[in-house]
């Protein structure tokens, strides 16, 4: 099956036409490998235009790579990293953060994927006590794995708490564009301006083929990043092809338009199915994901036509994701199908 | 500087038109992420057609990722891995193999990048002695980092020795297509048929944008590979774009034509410059690299026009690489330039 | 201050006289290093007499070393290890398990330090799903860090569940002798006979100077242990001095007498203070620890005379430990002091 | 076989009577665990009296633990550590340094176990080049694994070179007392005064039961050591027993007398056997080891009576070690035996 539309994940989608075009245009002659090229310089410039000049920008292959290299750079192996129990770094990276950073990951239970100072402060202690992993990083996901969004104020509360404790804040921004779109804010408002330290900026889930950026807002801590990236197998040789994609993504507001569309399509789907009595929406639909409990017997029927993932088997909770290329027609088709099936 | 031709590395080249075309064609609709898609199945089929059906094939982002995940899968951290001191895993991966496998890398001095049983057997001992890292892998590079090539007989001698000692043989095949082209042999002749255990099959240096394959010839050892790949940050979500590239590379003998061209261009360059008295060629030109000692004063002059790497500063030894897209005109221009400069 | 009696920890105590005598007696002439000696053979024989012949016994320096080497031997880095959130491996080893095994530690909340199948089963899933760390070990502490004890039936339920899921059960037995004494059972009843796979057997907290044993009940999994131990820095050269201690500990029931005394002294202390209104005992006193909430203002007053640790600052909960050398007089003195202070 | 005298290793010997006495005397009442005790303070004071006040001193269990924790503290995983190919960290620690530091170990061939700036400088390059492990530590062994000794001038040349390149010098001093005795110098002359950065100070091979010290001469780099020690499983709970041993070792010049005796006995053995025609001494006898090539047929005959290790099977080279408790009578007996056997 080569062609279909699904609601499985925004990474099932393909490459945005403008981004593919940028790749094609970059495919001329030779470029110096490993980032010392025209396209990388141009892409970094675009990032600085959006986030301010006082940042360091590096490109890697994928989200796990971005998270792991970012975290490695700002930790020693005897540190701990605190995050929501639903965080990608906690449940979806097969232990890569522990393996590569050597750190302890401390998962915190939340109801909506968002941690707060109140929820985590019990783990921010034991400083100087050699028997305990020393707390060093608070990692949040924006937008969260449950589709919810941190406000700038919520982030600021976390960064203030972290910095007061000599800790860093990492943001897993695999879907940060969706968060900005949802908040109707600039990317700068939810990163630079709320004092985060390092960001995994997602490209793949927002219309790129591959490629994520690691952005340091605290330049002192980025000094060794290039060695960490290389040793973590995340340095691409033909860097221009990631860079060209990022330059295109950040041009003409494509990053925003893509995110806005996927958010809007999720909202539309929500509107069209929220009244189906047997569907119980479990999280606020703030970005491009819908989490819902539906009777188990319908799941496999729906999956036969539309592939998607079961989120929590015990609860019969599923996840539907829209993406930058989801159309109103896709939503109409899918919601009609759901109305027909779930009766 | 966006457009130029260099002799710095085959990874400075761009993407072969047929491979780019395959990417573009794959860019329709949605595909299930992480490899459960049409393109991945098709690419694996192509590999089996070339190497036999009794293999396991997995795709990763880059060469360091391929080497490290392959080695992790077949070792425990208390093992040692023996290789040439010039091996990519020893000198060009910023310690990724040690960091991620935990193993000791034992480098062996060679004159031409090729190890032999004689050269390594002093390190294959101490089995059962807990104070020593236990020898487990012999890793060779084909073609080598010095452009030389192992014959099938040479490989067979190494695999026989390894298997007699309950060890595995890994081949770093970042340029294995160049080796096959040089030997005028099938890929199967220098892999499956000489009993190697695991191969890093290079795509990027032979005309792909990104993507390498890890191929296990001994299926028992591949069981856990998928976890190792994920935990090592080497699992791409939009797998179809690597797979489509490999399918194209392995179709219409593009892998071979590309390799043949780069080998031929190196040979041509060699013929055109071998008589310049002040250039001393230091390695046999068997594939697509030329190693030469040239007086230091000329190096920066040449680098100003043609970017390339100094191989050994102490010896004033440089490396020139041709690639799949090097043309006779490129060689003519470069050799004329060299003749004019080095006088 | 060289001489005092405290209730801080059983590892504040010294060496039992019989064990010190064994060290002195072993101090004659030379012994082959690293375990190929008379004393090690004799100590292993004693372990087999207690636990059955079908075990593999190895000695290490300390408890963290025992846990980490045991866990490393039975895991790959992409595995997860499930334990109580209060487990020593989770909170008191500065992340050594994550760093050295590479695994994810999944902490489970309990009220009394004891995990159950019900509490952990939500984490035993995702087998075959490469995005998740693969569950491989359930680690329990016997007696627990909260002084409570697993019955043989409770352990059996866990080992059955584990083995059904192709997982192993590790027991952190830093205080396993206290557990056996508390249950009035043989060591074999709570290890071999309930099918645990590997045990960290504690010596230091029960009257030894240093030294713990790692015991494999499933011999197939111990094959590589000696390399893991050496690579984890836990192989002592002058092994006879650990072995001689263990031989003494396991002779004349010293292991049991020591544990019985410390348990009895904790019970006695409990009886003498349980009616102090402002002391709220928070855990059952089943072994040699007492956990109690006491008004904050008394803590530093008591600590000035008797050093001990605050267990949970937020709750004003403290921990008092008795040890093999605690006397009735010590308890009388301490309880009188408490009665005088906490008014 | 409980009692014998061998020439296998100085770690086959037992505990010096004065050191054992110190252990016995320390065995009174309770002491706070993990180093906050009277004995540790006293031992550190002794070290400062010998080496100067500007040092940080920590105790660990064994030599591999000392080396690995010292190296971990001063490196990042993307660094390389340069040492003689005969170094304990390279061949006798089962890859613990690679596993725990993540660094690349670069072994350098020497004839006598001693590296020089000339021998290593080819590996001190590539600074800033992310593809190469970044050189950070030069590790030397004093006295070397081949029984030879670095003069202060030789060390100074290495530390100057290292510091000029922003690198550290680590000394594996498992037998540093033998080196000082051999040079007829103070410990300070070959450590503090020649600007080394960190020292693994050996206790076990010089008459202790267990225990080594890690000493930082550059206090800025020791800040995180206590976490590294704990996470590396090298923190003992009943610290007083290591500390009391060190205090005894450093009192009444026992460290020196022990080293002098073992050195003297090696010299004596050398004098008594150097004229046996079939014994070819291969290294200068500067401390307590004798390396000799002897015809293979004699080796097993001698080993039957006196256990020792074959150093290099290919060359039929063996190693005999004397220790602090070797007597002239032992040497007489052994040399007579050798004269009788090797005919």
What does it look like?
The structure is a homotetramer of 343-residue chains. The first copy, chain A, is of the alpha/beta class. The first copy, chain A, folds into two domains: 17-249, Type I PLP-dependent aspartate aminotransferase-like (Major domain) (Aspartate Aminotransferase, domain 2), CATH 3.40.640.10; 254-341, Aspartate Aminotransferase, domain 1 (Alpha-Beta Complex). Chain A has 13 helices and eleven strands. The first copy, chain A, has helices spanning 17-26, 38-51, 63-73, 88-91, 96-101, 117-120, 152-164, 176-183, 225-231, 240-249, 254-273, 296-305, 328-341; strands spanning 56-60, 79-84, 104-108, 134-141, 168-173, 198-202, 212-216, 280-281, 289-293, 309-312, 317-321. The radius of gyration of chain A is 20 Å and the shape is globular. In chain A, 61% of the residues are buried. The model of chain A has no long low-confidence stretch (mean pLDDT 96). Chains A and B meet through helix 1, helix 3, helix 5 and helix 9 of A and helix 1, helix 3, helix 5 and helix 9 of B.
